[in-house]
Amino acid sequence: MESNIKENGDVLKIGKYTFKSRLLIGTGKYPDFQTMKDSADASGAEIITVAVRRIDFNAKENLLSYIDLDKYILLPNTAGCYTAEDAVNTLRLARELDVFRTDLVKLEVIGDPKTLYPDNEELLKAAKILVKEGFTVMPYMMDDPVLAKKLEDAGCPVVMPLASPIGSGLGIRNPYNIKIIKETVSVPVIVDAGVGTASDACKTMELGVDGILINTAIAGAVNPVNMAAAMKNAVEAGRLAYLSGRIPMKLYAQASTQMEGIVF
Amino acid sequence: MKIELNGNEYTAGNGITVQNLIDELKLNIKSTAVAVNKTIVPKSSYAVFTLNENDKIDMVTIAPGG
Question: ipTM value of the model?
Answer without folding.
Answer: 0.95
